[in-house]
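Reopening closed ticket. The problem is back. First fold of the pair:
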Amino acid sequence: MNNIDREDIYELNELEKVIDIYPWGQRVIRFYDPDFHIVEVGESMESVFKKFQKQGMSIDEVAQRTQHPVEFVKKHITSQTVPTKTRKKIK
């Protein structure tokens, strides 16, 4: 890897993390993997919808802020997501 060892990559990775919030309210973090590919991880839009609703926004306001159709927002705000810890593995 061109005279770069794993410790150097770790240090680079720590320095190059970028935490951002897109205009539609989704939080993301970007970092480099060991092969220097950019990896972006973001919260689900369902969680963004629910976060805005908990902050007091109406469904119409959430739809406008997130740039999603009202019916799509309604569907996801009213859905009951099973927490990861209680999901069963499918064999």
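Second fold of the pair, where the issue appears:
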Amino acid sequence: MRRPRVAVYGRMRRWSSKADHVIGRVMNRRLYQTREAAHQLSLGMTVTKALISSGELRSIKIGHARRVPAEAIDEYVRRLDAEQNSPRESA
């Protein structure tokens, strides 16, 4: 039996699994692979890896695997929003 195809990221395919869904909703995950974090941020892999390397986007290592915590994605978006939409002081 084939698994349903959910999304395509570049050349890589992501397949849905029953473990990803609970009562028709996607479960909240705590850690994302780098490509999944890139997808969450609507960025490419090169930019996402540059953000991780520069420390702008927090990540952790588990063995050889690099993971981005969900909170780190939220923090990055909040920080960008605050920088770009904060009221500017007039001189």
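Update: turned out to be a display glitch only; the data is intact. The chain is about 35% helix and 25% strand. The two ends are 67 Å apart (CA to CA). Please close again.
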